[in-house]
Known about the structure:
CATH superfamily: PCu(A)C copper chaperone
Oligomer: single chain
Radius of gyration: 16 Å
CATH topology: Immunoglobulin-like
Helix content: 10-25%
Distance between the termini: 46 Å
Largest sheet: 12 strands, mixed
Amino acid sequence: MKLFKLSAAALAVATLIAPMGPLAAHAASGMMSMAPQPWTVGDLMISGAYARATLPNAPVGGGYLIVTNKGSSDDTLVSATSPAAGSVSLHSMTMDNGVMKMSDMPNGVPIPAGKTVTFSPSGLHLMFEQLKGPFVKGKTVPLTLVFAKAGSVTVDLAIGGIAASAPPGKAPAAGSDDSMSGMKM
């Protein structure tokens, strides 16, 4: 039983970092009607919100989005919650001597004035923990984001394939490498 739990956890983490193959890209290109719409809270615009499908009984899932600060003052994403999970953590992924490391960001994620911060499969991301059910391709996951200045907003993450690197209906950006920094300045 311990081996099964360990294998399920390893597979769940692997779904967070798996690259998108050509068949998945082709399938995503035919789902334009599923592309999520942007949300606004204060000076912040949230767009490109999506999650990856998970296997049945997976303990975790990943969420990704883009936050653009159109204001003149910095803000911070301080927390996130979802009825689909026991908790949602803000995480970063970095490479250290060829080893990928995931870290919790308990102090939040800065959203600098006039800048865009991207949450992607190989960088900053939202970690849904203690899933209450699988994330199913074609459905959505509600997510409430709490910002220090702008307040809170609830967005719907469109669920793409298990290795999606863009929201359903949107092709990955040309030359996209899911930047390890997670921030586009």
